Amino acid sequence: MPHLTSSGDEKPNWAIVIHGGAGSDPTKWNEDKTKIREAGLRRALAAGRDALANGRNALDTVELVIRILEDDAAFNAGRGAVLTKEGQVELDASIMDGKTRACGAVAGVTATRNPINLARLVMTETPHVLLAGKGANQFAEQQKVPLVAPDYFLSKARFPESEPHFGTVGCAVLDSDGNLAAGTSTGGTAKKLPGRVGDSPIVGAGTYAANDTCAVSGTGVGEEYIRNSIAYDVAARMRYANESIEDAVTIIMQQTLQAGVGGIIALSKDGKIVMQHNTPGMSCGAADSSGKFETHLALKDGGSPQRRVTTDARKPSKAETEITELLLQQVKDWNQGDIDAFMEPYWNSEQLTFSSGGKVTRGHAKTLLGYKERYPDAKTMGTLAFEGLEFQALGNDAMQVLGIWKLARDNQPMTGRFTLVLRQFPEGWRIIHDHTSKTPEKNSDDTVQQ
Length: 450
Ligand code: ASP
Description:
This protein is α+β, with helices and mostly antiparallel strands.
């Protein structure tokens, strides 16, 4: 099977990804269960695809698709919800609008046919984000959403669940206006204590959407998703560490969540689709405007990419990119013989420390003077290059940079190392400390300065 977890390079006009829960190995299911699951996924995905192709927005599409899955007894949400230890259903759901970050959720509702619908009403009709238990049930009555009697829920009769968790449903959508939305709905974990609330109605844990990054829905042992803010962590990794959506999900699935815990579906603002699970199976599916339409009960290698993804393989952070640009500009200025411009990234303060060859200079003015004395003209300045930059963030607004400098002058190449400490000021990154050393040359008269 080809690797199917991300779409091609072309940005699709719209995209949708769904899940129907992570858990047991589908190769062990009987034919009936396999067929019913597959048909349920295809039906919901096709409805989502058609809605998006007809210009429906992301939020409406998420609600529409999840309603279909809630009405399908093959999934642990709505009609097919698992029961608590006391034999009741307690349903959880949430929905989030990536455009406005508006969100709504319900937990522990007992008579609402479509909890995702109620979650959306919490979002639009109340100033709140999450209603639980009795209050959520009352809200359902007030809103006149379709209510059902306990015997509507068929899970126990039709699909006795031996699995601790399986069949939660979720959906993430990018619409043709570039808006993202996500939602999740579940009966929770089978035989849960009455009152137990999982991750599905917790925004940031089981569901998250923000137009600047991605839309996410999770499924698995909800407690782990809450502990690790899983859905938000996908977005945070993209936002703050510049990770691709695939790297973000892979790192979480491989390093944050233990094997066997669950799965994630995620969709980036560019329409990249990721589906991964570290359980034997995950019912899921994806479609987009390029014609993609696929459903799975399990993905090869849990959908993880063949290459090894580590946090080291990440792209440079925003700070690293900005500082690299600053240093490259410095090199340019130096090579144009402009020491004043070269000095601009240095902190314009008496507290600047500049240490070269063991001699420490304090303050911007003295450092500049020192440079001008050592390098009175462009000829003495020669040609500078920086190499091998290594970054170490020191909190959020400071960075240590290690590197090698090389100076070519009069056929006398010189080289050495530097350690810079930069701080982020309102005007940008500034070097507040510079420690430069020179590497001694063999057979040279140069005094070793370190
Ligand atoms: N995450 C859900 C919960 O803990 C269950 C699941 O996804 O299977 O309530």
